[in-house]
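Incident log, structure service

09:12 report received: a user says their structure output differs between two submissions of the same chain.
09:20 pulled the input from the user's history:
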Amino acid sequence: MPITKSSRQLVDEATANITTYTVDQVRERLGKDPRLQLVDIRDVRELEREGTVPGAVLAPRGMLEFWVDPASPYFKPVFGDESKEFVLFCGAGWRSALAAQALQDMGMSNVAHVDGGFGAWLKAGAPTETLEAHKAAHAARKG
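09:34 re-ran on a clean worker, output below:
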């Protein structure tokens, strides 16, 4: 059976319903706005190859809905902090648009995404770190 809606149509529909920030808007808030919580939804291969944004929560796209749901056995408490605005990003902004729409559909109003994703982040020269450095920084914050 042929599909009736393209992936591009789904992304366009999601983008019309969610909050979208430019890299510059997010960068301006980085380190200054305690409400901002970046969420990298790319898979581990992308993270190993390209790194991530300092301070981002790493939440693979395939687990995101389970990690934000307090009734799920996979719930991650970071997502229970209603004082945060969770700004999602992926490689190009398509998966994060769909993911932000899914979280809104679950009832989250404190969610947005980055237009152009990590690709736009890199192009803008915004700060990044390797996955190893990210893990070390996370361990230092916990310990």
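09:41 both user submissions now match this output. Likely a transient worker issue. Closing.
09:42 reviewer note: The first strand starts at residue 19 and ends at 21. The chain has a mean pLDDT of 96.
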